[in-house]
Amino acid sequence: MNKLTTGSKSLDELLGGGIGRGVLTQVYGTFATGKTTLAMQIGLLNHGKVVYIDTEGGFSPERLKLMAEKRGFDAGEILQRFIIFEPHDFKEQKRVISKLKRMVNEKFSLIVVDSITSHYRVEKNKQSLNVDLGKQLQVLLWLARKYNLAVIVVNQVYFDSNSNSLKPIAEHTLGYKCKDILRLERLSRPGIRLAVLERHRFKPEGGIVYFKITDKGIEDV
Ligand SMILES: Nc1ncnc2c1ncn2[C@@H]1O[C@H](COP(=O)(O)OP(=O)(O)OP(=O)(O)O)[C@@H](O)[C@H]1O
Ligand SMILES: [Mg+2]
Predict the structure, then answer these.
(1) How many CB atoms lie within 10 A of CB 91?
(2) SS3 letters for 53-87?
(3) Which residue in 34, 103, 110, 187 has a CA-CA distance of 20 to 30 Å to 54?
(4) Which of 219, 221, 182 lies closest to 203 in space, CA to CA?
(5) Ligand lying closest to the C-alpha of residue 35
């Protein structure tokens, strides 16, 4: 299969059929918008092994188990497909990503870095940090192309006082490497979320779909 399904028909359509292989997809947004749920669900619903690099403790086996069971999967089998890494700082994150070159093979269909910038954002010297970040993305891109797998790069936002708006962290460094960019937003109606296609290789930008978060994970409204 060429794309990885998100499990939501409207999200798949927005993304031109699902999450692309061989490229990096950035998913960003404020807290509790569903980034982790979406990334876990994509691993859950598609065949193949999953590398999940959890930098902020957002990955929850209990949540994944619940989502699997509610969708009629054997939770034990699903959890076995996930290989979890928990780097505690940016240096360790760099080591983990570098190690993937020796570990990942044809059996893998997805790599998630959730999030790529939580350790980055606490470091001081952004200039040398951007070089490091770029290198990490380069390794991920190399893996994506070599094994034709999908890579989801989760990112956070910060308040940019110049433009008076929320912006993705390390926007430019990530923007060069992530060809497809999805922004998630919360709405005032509880449970309902919004996904905006900010950039895509072959779909027009600005497309919007609604989704909700339930026991099953991400669902169409
Ligand atoms: N079983 C469930 N049913 C419905 N909603 C749930 C369930 N479990 C978690 N949620 C909701 O999912 C949201 C959190 O989603 P998720 O962790 O994917 O967000 P996130 O974007 O990764 O946030 P963060 O930036 O903090 O990591 C919360 O609003 C939470 O209430
Ligand atoms: Mg999260």
Answers:
(1) 12
(2) EECCCCCCHHHHHHHHHHCCCCHHHHHHHEEEECC
(3) 187
(4) 182
(5) 1
Nearest CA to ligand 1 atom 11: 213
Q: How far, in Å, from the CA of 55 to the mean position of ligand 2?
A: 9
Q: How does 136-170 read in b/e, with b if 16+ C-beta sit within 10 Å?
A: bbebbbebbeebebbbbbbbbbeeeeeeeeeebbb
Query: What is the position in ligand 1's atom list of the atom closest to the CA of 31?
Result: 25
pLDDT at 128 over 90: no
Evaluate if residue 78 carries a pLDDT over 70.
yes
In the chain, count of helices (H) and strands (E)? 7, 13
Q: Which residue has the least CA distance to atom 14 on ligand 1?
A: 32
CA–centroid distance, 29 to ligand 1, in Å, is 12
Binding pocket residue ranges, ligand 1, CB within 6 Å: 29, 31-37, 58, 63, 213-215
What does pLDDT average to over the chain?
96
Closest CA relative to residue 136, chosen from 91, 85, 88: 91
Q: Against a cut of 0.90, is the pTM above it? A: yes
What domains, with CATH codes, occur in the chain?
Answer: 23-179 (3.40.50.300)
Do 23 and 181 form a contact (C-beta atoms < 8 A)?
no
pLDDT of residue 126: 80
